[in-house]
Amino acid sequence: MIFGMDTYTFVHVLLSLIGIVAGFIVLFGLLTANRMSGWTAIFLATTLATTLTGFGFPYNGLTPAIGVGIVSTIVLVITIAARYAFRLRGSWRWIYAGGAVLSFYLNFFVLIAQSFQKIPALNAFAPTGSEPPFAITQGIALLALVIAGVLSLRTFKPAIA
Fold first, then answer.
1. Is the dihedral of CA 141, 68, 16, 118 positive or negative?
2. Helix crossing, 7-31 with 37-54: angle to 10°?
3. Contact (Cβ atoms closer than 8 angstroms) between residue 48 and residue 69
4. Residues near 98 by Cβ (< 8 Å), separated by ≥ 6?
5. Tens digit of each residue's pLDDT (9 = 90 or more) over 86-135
6. In the chain, where do the E strands start and end?
């Protein structure tokens, strides 16, 4: 056990946190028309690994977490293809930018949800996840990333390699 978690959960959480940190850096790159190639690879790899390891936890039927995982997997596959297979040519540029922001948001959404579930100080404000503090926090994150996403679609025009 590491920090009260089994090794699988620890690796899953670590991948997620690395993906979120890299996601902030990639988002900055999108907003400044900088490919951030190394950080992009880290972001996409760790976010995909986070999503796929999420399917390894026990579950009974389709849960919201499984639904987010399915959507995230589909978005990540398209985003990775846009970046690496189609090399940001034509409409693949905005598909990549939008997919990267959406992938980042989904990972960040889960971070917020898990934080409210697992951190006692936050859980006290929203024990069921349906209280206003949780909704407001998720709403602020969504609004910020929608704005960043729209801006990135307008500004991410990297030089053709």
1. positive
2. 140
3. no
4. 149, 152, 153
5. 999 999 999 999 999 999 999 999 999 999 999 999 999 999 989 999 99
6. none
